[in-house]
Amino acid sequence: MSRAVVVDAPGVHHVVSGVQPEPGPGEVLIRVAAAGICMSDREVYDGHRDPGYVRYPVVPGHEWSGTVEAVGAGVDPALAGRRTVAEGFRFCGTCAQCRRGATSLCGAGYDETGFTRPGGFADHLVVPARLLHPLADDADLRSAALLEPAAVVAAAVRAARPEPGDRIAVVGAGTLGLLAVQLLAATSPAELTVIDPRAERAAQAVVFGATGTRAPEEAPEVRGRYDLVVETAGAPSTAADSCLLPRRGGQVVLTGMFTPGARGIDPVHLSLNQLTVRSIFGAPSAAWSFAVRAFTAGILDPAPLITHEFPLERYAEAVALVGSGDPKTGKVLLRP
Fold first, then answer.
1. Is 30 within 8 Å of 314 (Cβ atoms)?
2. Which of 137, 138, 284, 299 has the highest CB neighbour number within 10 Å of its CB?
3. Residues 119-135: pLDDT tens digits?
């Protein structure tokens, strides 16, 4: 038997038990070890996610880790027993976007584990074997559940191409922001400042490699200072505010997911300062490989971000913690 959390409609869920799924040709069956809950999952439960990016009923869970329990026809049997994570986007691999490496923007349309396909809030999960990123035999699967947000951050770092000696600011010290600090600290910046209103998160950022922190009200003091700004908060004002921090000719990478009504970026400021602004949507395959290599090398250590763990049956309690505003709540995991 296998259990799964099913969100039938916004605010309505139940835990089902049924026959263990079987992998089809080209697929693998994963025994889920841990699955992270993020604000996107909260939006699915609350009904606030754009209708084009969720399909009810759904088993949520796009951040997960596990072990290959069985393989389908045409899949290398040696994968059985391997610890692994996998990309969430079910990209086609043949369209123009996929051919140029932008697999998170697949022209075949949006299709993602945990949103339009059954996800990791379950005992078992079936995914295409081509999406796997196998881990070391001794990999910590509890930490590895955070490799999906780490891959998003890796996409931002790869896009920015920071150089040693750069002055860098990270806006937001949530999961994305703190993982960004770890990756950016490895590039030997001259300065790595984290901007966040929460004192507890700011202190953790220093442990993760930040050279200093500032509260948002102190940000005007450092406008025009940074070579690179990585925005991770997705708050209504953080895109616009982040674009005030770079030097002339600097760059901004937006990784936060914004909601309608967020304050726009001043085009006059952009043009006069010749800023480069990039946005990130999910993570392409190359960013996943980057994140897994950094995790294996010990550059990424997500474990200190985890503060709460719950069984599947306590899903409602777990999802309510996410976005609750409690500064002591970090990453929340479901442990099937």
1. no
2. 284
3. 999 999 999 999 999 99
